[in-house]
Amino acid sequence: MQKASEDQIRKIVEEVVGRVVLSGGSAGEASVGDNGVFSGIDAAVTASIKAQQALVAMTIEQRGKIIDAIRKLSRERAEDFSRRTLEETGMGRLEDKIQKHRVAADATPGIEDLEAKSWTGDHGLTVVEMAPYGVVGAITPSTHPVPTMINNAICIIASGNSVVFNAHPSAKNVSMYAVRLLNQTIESVGGPANLITTIAEPTLDTVNELFTHRGVRILLVTGGPGVAKAALASPKKAIVAGPGNPPAVVDETADIRKAAGDIIDGGSFDNNILCIGEKQVFVVDSVADELKRNMVEYGAKELNVEQIKKLTEVAFKSGPNGEPTVNRDLVGKSAWVLAEHIGIKAEESLRMLIGETTSDHVFVQEEQMMPFLPIVRVRDVDEAIRLAIISEHGYKHTAIIHSKNIDNMHRMACEADTTIFVKNGPSFAGVGLGGEGFGTYSIAGPTGEGLTSPRTFTRQRRCALVDYFRIT
Length: 472
Ligand code: NAD
What we know:
Elements: H1 6-22, E1 37-38, H2 41-56, H3 60-76, H4 78-89, H5 94-107, E2 117-121, E3 124-132, E4 135-139, H6 145-158, E5 162-166, H7 172-188, E6 196-199, H8 204-212, E7 218-222, H9 225-232, E8 237-241, E9 247-250, H10 256-268, E10 280-284, H11 285-297, E11 300-302, H12 305-315, E12 316-318, E13 324-326, H13 335-341, E14 352-356, H14 362-365, E15 372-378, H15 381-392, E16 398-402, H16 406-416, E17 420-423, E18 443-444, E19 450-451, E20 458-466
Parallel strand pairs: 1-6, 4-5, 4-7, 5-6, 7-8, 9-10, 9-16, 10-15, 11-14, 14-15, 16-17
Antiparallel strand pairs: 2-3, 3-20, 12-13, 18-19
């Protein structure tokens, strides 16, 4: 039998000791990950702690190289990741998914986001630096599993942390595939093994394990109302990127043709599964017909009352307490598929269905995540803003206005109080696509961090040198 070298023995001892410490004495799951994929949370966290310690021992320049490699992989694999995601989740549109991976690669800030602050004066020099927490436990949604992972990983690693992902069960295969490739690419540029980890069988139980594991310092949770609520109740600091239901208001001063195009572009992007996507429109009566006409000219199809009724019946089910619940089978499906469900034959190129509803309609009040856009005709802009804010349900996520009236724009921006507010553009302009500013896939409204970036995952540390180094 071949003898193990001293180095091999040291590594084995380190791993066993790490696991015993973290699991309170039990050996836990297998400790050796397959490029970041583990069979249990405990093993993933153990490996992640080790990776984070190795990362902070490296130079900032090396961290930058790791980030560059992640960006490159995301660009090169954009189509591969998109096809696999579409196949596994059945939601969205291939070309939009490809763009989402490119945005994650190019618009996510890196190490430049970690700007130190300093004061100099009679009593010397004080600096504040951004320090990492350690291991971040992250939950990803089914709607953009890999772009969220890439965006989150860039932010988390740029700030010197490591990450354990609990992917959405219905996107676990593409998530595991991406984690393996990401780790290979990180190691290929000299980064530590297992900087990004995940588990092979994510469940609600593993979410809870991650939420309470003592090796996890903070949580980053991106998802719907259930997981947002669970994260807010967890014992750890949680950065919560919860649901939205973004309204778009169109007043009589707007460039109606442009508004129609922008709303269809934003609302139909990836079949309306983006949390920022336009989900309902409130339009002033005097320009409502013109808006609808322009939307149809731009590629939408208008449904009549009977057709909307039929679509509502297939798009919503009754929940456990009789409340309307979105039919997951139709979430992210193409407009022509929705049309087919109600007996309408449509071209596959159809981007969006539209139709007039009242403001209390379930399509207005629920986050439907499918390309049917309810349009509510209102008396004036006051009524539009009031009903738009009600439909947003206080998520404080995203709202949009199309107007040339500066008072209306200002008032809605103040009153909506959302994390993202877009004026005269598609919703995605608010995350840097066609608008200024950086991009993110985790918009933390409930906990207030806003558009997450590397600095979101840092602790501020102050260092004071007394009486010296004011050199002027
Ligand atoms: P989802 O809530 O179904 O799933 C998200 C994750 O949470 C999954 O990993 C899932 O397993 C887990 N989960 C779900 N319910 C849970 C519970 N009760 N306890 C513990 N874990 C639970 O979300 P989805 O449908 O995949 O994604 C769409 C939702 O995410 C929408 O509501 C959308 O608005 C929101 N979203 C928000 C942002 C943002 O930045 N704020 C970004 C993307 C998506």
